[in-house]
């Protein structure tokens, strides 16, 4: 479902004389339907960079990144937006929302955007918010004023509202209490059981060991030091 083939990445530092920094070389990774693969490696090794390339936020310098039948490394922006709407979910570490949109609609939005009927979309959103212990009195308010932990749970509810065939998870259990952390691990297990292919970064080793089938150490994709 997700196939990264011989991908490299450089950053050009425009404010430092256009210095070109190679950060990744020969990155390869296969994730089948129903499988969860954890990206591991020391800080700065390139886990986030690889994840951002799969999501199409960073452009790969070479190689192929297949998500379903789309090569993210070569696709036009419009094609990437379609992929994100229909195929590839992303649970980032922080919630980014349009101000003044009520929490229930923030969570229902990924369903509404693909034409799910409003009542059904809100029912699914309500079920997820309940599961993640967001009190109903908050559902009509914008999450912008919520606590950090509440925002993270709204973000997770939104990320799991649709049953995407492929998902990227950036530290989905970080800074959650035990009850909510357990809910998130169950959501991941359910997504795998229905066939989602998942790539994740988990500093929470216990959660990683429980939900991930394999680890890929991105240190292996670090270019040899240039003198
Ligand atoms: N936008 C950018 N411009 C320049 N260099 C960048 C950029 N993003 C990442 N890098 C560099 O790429 C390398 C990999 O960074 P990345 O954030 O992917 O590491 P990571 O493994 O996710 O680290 P951490 O566990 O600390 O989040 C680092 O050397 C970093 O400085």
Automatic annotation (TrEMBL):
<keyword id="KW-0456">Lyase</keyword>
<dbReference type="InterPro" id="IPR027417">
    <property type="entry name" value="P-loop_NTPase"/>
</dbReference>
<dbReference type="GO" id="GO:0016829">
    <property type="term" value="F:lyase activity"/>
</dbReference>
<dbReference type="InterPro" id="IPR003439">
    <property type="entry name" value="ABC_transporter-like_ATP-bd"/>
</dbReference>
<keyword id="KW-0547">Nucleotide-binding</keyword>
<dbReference type="InterPro" id="IPR012701">
    <property type="entry name" value="CP_lyase_PhnL"/>
</dbReference>
<feature type="domain" description="ABC transporter">
    <location>
        <begin position="2"/>
        <end position="226"/>
    </location>
</feature>
<keyword id="KW-0067">ATP-binding</keyword>
<dbReference type="InterPro" id="IPR017871">
    <property type="entry name" value="ABC_transporter-like_CS"/>
</dbReference>
<dbReference type="Pfam" id="PF00005">
    <property type="entry name" value="ABC_tran"/>
</dbReference>
<comment type="similarity">
    <text>Belongs to the ABC transporter superfamily.</text>
</comment>
<protein>
    <submittedName>
        <fullName>Phosphonate C-P lyase system protein PhnL</fullName>
    </submittedName>
</protein>
<dbReference type="InterPro" id="IPR003593">
    <property type="entry name" value="AAA+_ATPase"/>
</dbReference>
